[in-house]
Design a protein that fits this description.
Strand content: over 45%
Helix content: under 10%
Largest sheet: 8 strands, antiparallel
Shape: globular
Oligomer: single chain
Number of helices: 0
Structural class: mainly beta
Radius of gyration: 24 Å
Length: 535
């Protein structure tokens, strides 16, 4: 195939072109390691997370001190992400070895619920937690002004983790806790492992399902009708969900499970991976009871005759199961270092997945290239497994995704070193700084401009082989840039060094076979990419 690159001095901009861009960003910065999770409510966008060091700056102008070495925070933003309505610290006086953290576990009309772990003496407003030792689990309810309505703690002398929670139709809260040793919650004794706690909306413990799991931690939970669906990972090569037991070669493998509202098992599945370390992070369920789940695996992943293989490192997976636990489809990212952290249903027929990757990531026909330190990815899927599109943002990881009232994705993540958003460079203070932002919808419309990877717009796409390329405004000139074209298998087709002050190059592929090609632009350590589709 002969490739001709025509470099034109063209200063016009396709201003009407749509692309997936990150905007309306709020930074959460400390001199430590920061994390934030988000959830939508009728009152705005809720957020919760942790920060390192002795204080945190949110939105650039407010300092919230830490009670210990690092702390937790919660807050509420308006729908436009232009204003933080309120924010507060909620951490305990933890020891340096205790890593506190929290997330928004559930949302209701009269308040929201935060689950997590704390270390040392711990209180929120007038509510005091019982300290048992190590890190203890907690669940707290807040009103939409940030006032704590009640606080419940659980655990033993070793470390415990507050897990996901769901609300039932009869106003009960089902909360999962995982303990490394036996312990208590209120007057109930609990064994080592996972247990399911039932509370009323005032925080009173109604029941505890002990031995809910043995060496299985659930990270996500969803409710549909009278059933609960769970996803997580095993913690030992011998593990159990109630009376359902597994014995395998790996300490950590992916687990999916279904039970009734009392915690009685209905079914459970263990997805076997090639090497220990695999896990399922986020799960959603639709009205038909189908499950959608993402996470990561090592080497290979097999279920119901479907199998994906990756490198010797970690790779993201996305899968759908029916209400009986049968796998309907399974796909991977064909990446060396990737993981899916967040998943959220957009409509009854599409959903988004967010995470991080290094090197390359391929979802269907959509391929992304990462910066050297890794990149955030977000992909939109139809429920049949077709990927509608993907976008990446350099030097960052994606944690969670929700939607505003207009259906635009709002994402949370963290970045390293620096990121560029709408031509503005943001620099990290510590190890990782967290952020919340909004992005355009991934539409999957074939003939609109596409911004894949870290910022290239390619137009018209697809066509017979002639493509205009527009790079972000943060790149003042293309002089000295390297332009590479790859086929769908990643093989290099052509490579050029741009030696003029070109603003908008045109790539023409003559005698090219129909299919997808990847365009990669490299300049001064920055990488931009996009895809070319030849009809």
């Amino acid at each position: 195939m002969k490739t001709i690159v025509i470099l034109l001095l063209c200063f016009s901009v396709f201003a009407d072109l749509k692309a997936q861009q990150l905007r309306d960003v709020t930074l959460i910065q400390s001199y430590g390691d920061d994390f934030v999770n988000i959830a939508h409510s009728d009152h705005g966008i809720l957020f919760a997370g942790r920060y390192g060091g002795t204080g945190v700056v949110v939105g650039g102008d407010s300092i919230y001190p830490s009670n210990g070495l690092g702390d937790m925070f919660i807050g509420l933003m308006n729908e436009s992400l232009s204003d933080i309505i309120w924010i507060r610290s909620i951490g305990g006086y933890n020891n340096p070895s205790d890593l506190e953290g929290c997330f928004v576990a559930a949302v209701s009309d009269d308040g929201f619920y935060v689950s997590g772990r704390f270390g040392g003496p711990y209180s929120i407003d007038a509510h005091q937690a019982l300290v048992r030792g190590g890190e203890d689990a907690f669940l707290a309810k807040f009103d939409y002004s940030g006032n704590c309505l009640w606080l419940k703690s659980a655990g033993g002398v070793m470390n415990d983790r507050g897990g996901p929670a769901v609300l039932t139709a009869d106003n009960k809260i089902l909360w999962m806790v995982y303990g490394e040793n036996s312990g208590t919650i209120d007057t109930f004794n609990v064994s080592k492992g996972g247990y399911l706690v039932t509370l009323d909306i005032d925080g009173s413990v109604l029941a505890v399902r002990d031995h809910f799991t043995t060496s299985v931690r659930f990270y996500s939970m969803a409710i549909q009708g009278s059933s609960i669906y769970c996803s997580g990972q095993t913690e030992n090569d011998s593990s159990a969900f109630g009376s359902i037991q597994w014995v395998g070669n790996n300490m950590q493998d992916i687990v999916l499970a279904k039970c009734d509202l009392n915690g009685n098992p209905i079914w459970a599945r263990q997805l076997v991976s090639g090497r220990s370390g695999s896990g399922a992070c986020e799960l959603e369920v639709d009205d038909e009871g189908s499950l959608y789940v993402t996470g990561g695996y090592y080497d290979s992943l097999s279920v119901d005759g479907n199998r994906v293989t990756g490198s010797n490192s970690e790779d993201v997976f996305v899968a759908r199961f029916d209400s009986n636990g049968t796998n309907l489809w399974l796909i991977n990212g064909a990446s060396r270092y990737s993981w899916g952290f967040g998943l959220n249903m957009d409509t009854d027929s599409t959903f988004y997945v967010i995470g991080r990757f290094s090197d390359t990531l391929t979802m269907g026909i959509h391929q992304l290239f990462s910066s050297s330190s890794g990149s955030l990815f977000i992909s939109r899927f139809r429920i049949d497994g077709e990927c509608m599109g993907s976008s990446a943002f350099a030097n960052s990881s994606g944690y969670s995704v929700t939607f505003d009232i207009s259906g635009f994705p709002i994402i949370s993540g963290a970045f390293y070193d620096s990121i560029q958003v709408q031509g503005i460079t943001y620099t990290s203070w510590g190890q990782r700084d967290a952020f919340i932002g909004r992005m355009d919808k991934i539409t999957g419309i074939a003939n609109e401009a596409r911004m894949d990877g870290n910022g290239l717009v390619i137009y018209a796409n697809p066509n017979d082989g002639s493509f205009r390329i527009r790079v972000p405004a943060s790149v003042p000139t293309l002089e000295g840039a390297r332009l590479s074209v790859y086929d769908s298998k990643g093989a290099l087709v052509e490579q050029f060094i741009i030696d003029s002050h070109t603003e908008v190059p045109i790539v023409r592929l003559h005698n090219a076979m129909p299919g997808q090609y990847i365009l990669r632009l490299e300049q001064d350590g920055r990488v931009f990419s996009g895809r070319l589709i030849v009809k």
